[in-house]
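Field log, afternoon session.

UNIT: design team B
ACTIVITY: writing a sequence onto a fixed backbone
BACKBONE:
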């Protein structure tokens, strides 16, 4: 077989060793990920209970899903948590990165402190903030002991604002990672750009807003994808802090899926909810993949 075309190595045999080495990973992805995904979507159209069975019921599981108050509460909580988490994570993470980028003293120490919460599991983070937000011996209890008897701050016990208590814990853990990503992007900005901005008399905030941030577009997009994928899968924090309570006030889709698949033994309903979560992730990932890879091919 000819391995050269017009004096160039055939594309098929270029980087052959790397392609051979990637075969196990590709097969694993096809069998485990794509196969598992197809299996989940298929059985979401069945009436499977304790065990999966091919008893098709059409869209009944999806109609039942979107008619369930618990699922609607989960979607509403995910929307609130996701929107605020995206905004605050990016803003706080970028501000911290901008401060550390000023070559301050003890930068390594501050960077370690800010990133440390990310090294903890979500269960540990949830338990820590469950204690800190406890009305008896958390923030509220400490402030009242200092003399402010009327001070009230117990979001985990208030159904109206419980999702914001979970948001606080999520931001505390995840903002450090965002800060590191942003700091890496800032360190990649050419020093000559900063010098030119200072020579032209451009204020620092304008330099960040109109020059630096547009140049960091790939970093922002990647960070958004990482945050968004974590938001859709949020489960541990909720279980550790509230177990979905008070009542179902802090229910999220991932917990809904787990409860129906393992506690309620209703696989069909759990598969339908999983498929909707998969669709949400696809809505985030597909545009990102297009903008990052599809547009480059046409440039």
């Amino acid at each position: 077989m000819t391995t050269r075309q017009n004096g160039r190595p055939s594309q098929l045999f270029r980087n052959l060793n790397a392609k051979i080495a990637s075969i196990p990973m590709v097969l694993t992805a096809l069998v485990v990920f794509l196969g598992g995904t197809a299996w989940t979507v298929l059985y979401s159209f069945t009436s499977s209970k304790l065990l999966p069975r091919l008893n098709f019921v059409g869209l009944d599981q999806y109609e039942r899903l979107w008619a369930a108050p618990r699922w609607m509460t989960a979607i509403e909580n995910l929307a609130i948590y996701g929107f605020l988490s995206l905004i605050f994570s990016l803003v706080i993470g970028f501000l911290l990165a901008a401060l550390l980028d000023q070559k301050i003293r003890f930068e390594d120490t501050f960077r370690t402190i800010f990133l440390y919460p990310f090294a903890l599991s979500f269960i540990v983070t949830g338990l820590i903030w469950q204690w800190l937000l406890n009305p008896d011996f958390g923030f509220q209890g400490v402030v009242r002991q200092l003399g402010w008897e009327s001070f009230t701050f117990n979001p985990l016990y208030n159904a109206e604002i419980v999702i914001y208590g979970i948001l606080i814990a999520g931001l505390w853990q995840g903002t450090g990672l965002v800060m590191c990503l942003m700091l890496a992007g800032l360190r990649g900005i050419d020093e000559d750009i900063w010098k030119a901005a200072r020579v032209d008399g451009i204020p620092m905030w304008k330099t960040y807003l109109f020059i630096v941030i547009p140049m960091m577009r790939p970093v922002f997009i990647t960070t958004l994808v990482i945050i968004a994928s974590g938001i859709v899968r949020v489960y541990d924090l909720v279980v550790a802090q509230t177990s979905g309570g008070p009542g179902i006030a802090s229910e999220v889709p991932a917990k809904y899926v787990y409860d129906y698949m393992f506690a309620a033994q209703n696989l069909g309903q759990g598969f339908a909810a999983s498929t909707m979560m998969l669709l949400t992730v696809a809505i985030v990932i597909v545009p990102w993949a297009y903008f990052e890879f599809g547009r480059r091919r046409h440039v």
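LOG NOTE: The chain has a mean pLDDT of 87.
NEXT ACTIVITY: expression trials, pending approval
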